[in-house]
Specification:
alpha/beta; 42% helix; 15% strand; two-stranded antiparallel sheet; globular
Length: 453
């Protein structure tokens, strides 16, 4: 049978500046925290660097050709703060402005709408040296950067997102395995509060421009945790902690409900981690938005006994391969949660979804990526069911247009519809690219059966 999506449904693909652009030392660009972090021994798999990545800075025409081949209506990308303002503030790098104007002109020529993220994890290193998001001055710095973007690109962008997955800042400041590589939870909690303030002030700045059709939102990923064993108190406790204290609840509560959750505030108080919260902060953070971007990859089931075994193996120096099962059915539950628990009453877009194939599996296995097709197909089935149940989802962006620099995984994890040959920088369509082009063309897909909820 065939399932069809609404006529106005937006099909797209997504990338991020630090993952595809390369040219990190060219045309006046300053270093980002990822440029520095990637040079620390052992931080990136196989010691890979983002210096060249996919070289989209020089191959932007080919990238837009691929978008056309896929038949997508929208391209989600991010601006590089370091390319626009090499020192984070101050002098604007005109060559950076020219690059993005070229990209936007190509998109417009080809009838592809722009969905742009202001911040996708790549803070200018010069600002990190001043305390980064841990310094409340970041609100002023970010608004200066946002002003440059809005003044130069304004309504050339159909959808603006202030931030992508703010949790990356927590991982980078509290847990050490993302840039800038720090392990200070109190600093991280303060940084997240400042990041949310940046978002709120930026939304207010955007409204002042009174654009006629451009919209603004934020992108927050949701990896919802469930207790693996019904009624098991340990499993339940782990799931609550993963969701409310170290996951999506850190952001969705203040963004949509106007404050931190009871569970998170209790955690702050018990562990002496309460950030400095000033009068009016939550009013600033909880700004009305035009859309919500959901990055969804999987649902996770927590088993306390299995987690203990994992930790024992790791501490003993063993290589515990944690390969969770795929639970695409969690997408429908997550979408209902957004509406029913967090009162998200604005259009929702799936701004990222995908699955990697390991580079070690070889070129042919990556090109013949039927497993990716099956995964995405199942996600789309559950997405369609959610839409049928009344959830207002307006679009879907597959991660990613092409294989790219996948942060701490380097180039080992291949998410792309196009295979990137990192020696020649050639982009080669995978089996999934041809399949996704058919989905976008037909605004739907053939399936064997509709799963039961």
């Amino acid at each position: 049978m065939q399932i069809k999506f609404p006529e106005s449904f937006t099909w797209g693909v997504a990338t991020a500046a630090a993952q595809v652009e390369g040219a990190v030392f060219e045309d006046g660009r300053g270093p980002s925290i990822w440029d520095v972090f990637s040079r620390l021994p052992g931080k990136i798999k196989n010691g890979y660097l983002p210096d060249i990545a996919c070289d989209s800075y020089h191959k932007v025409e080919r990238d837009v050709e691929m978008l056309k081949e896929l038949g997508v209506k929208s391209y989600r990308f991010s601006f590089s703060w370091s390319r626009i303002l090499p020192e984070g503030t101050g002098k604007v790098n005109e060559k950076g402005i020219i690059y993005y104007k070229k990209l936007l002109a190509l998109l417009k020529e080809n009838g592809i709408r722009a969905n742009a993220t202001m911040y996708h994890w790549d803070l200018p290193y010069a600002l990190q040296m001043k305390g980064g998001f841990g310094n409340r001055e970041i609100v002023k710095w970010f608004c200066e950067y946002a002003s440059v973007l809005l003044d130069n690109f304004g309504e050339d962008i159909d959808m603006w997102a202030t931030f992508n997955e703010p949790i990356a800042t927590y991982v980078g400041y509290a847990q050490g395995f993302f840039a800038p590589g720090l392990q200070d939870e109190k600093y991280a909690r303060q940084a997240l509060h400042h990041l949310l303030l940046c978002h709120g002030e930026c939304v207010k700045l955007f409204r002042e421009h009174m654009f006629t059709h451009a919209s603004i939102g934020i992108v927050v990923d949701v990896w919802k945790h469930y207790p693996a064993r019904e009624g098991n108190a340990e499993d339940q406790s782990i799931a609550v902690t993963s969701n409310e204290i170290r996951g999506y609840g850190m952001f969705l509560h203040p963004l949509f409900l106007g404050g931190y959750s009871k569970e998170l505030m209790n955690y702050f108080e018990i562990n002496h981690l309460t950030p400095d919260i000033q009068d009016g902060d939550f009013e600033t953070i909880c700004q009305p938005l035009d859309f919500y971007g959901l990055n969804f990859y999987n649902g996770l089931y927590d088993n306390a006994d299995e987690i203990r075994e994992m930790e024992k193996t790791r501490k003993a120096g063993g290589n515990y391969q944690d390969r969770p099962e795929n639970h695409p059915e969690a997408l429908k539950d997550v979408l209902h949660m957004l509406v029913e628990k967090y009162h998200v009453d604005i259009p929702i877009y799936i701004t990222e979804n995908g699955v990697p194939i390991d580079d070690a599996d070889g070129r042919e296995a990556n090109l013949d990526d039927q497993s990716r097709i099956e995964y995405v197909k199942n996600v789309l089935i559950w997405l369609h069911k959610a839409i049928e149940e009344g959830i207002d989802v307006r679009g879907y962006y597959l991660w990613s247009l092409m294989d790219n620099f996948e942060w701490s995984a380097g180039y080992a994890a291949r998410y792309g519809l196009y295979y990137t040959d990192y020696e020649t920088l050639e982009r080669i369509p995978k089996k999934s690219a041809k399949w996704y082009a058919q989905v976008t063309r037909e605004n739907g897909l053939l399936i064997d059966a509709v799963p039961q909820a």
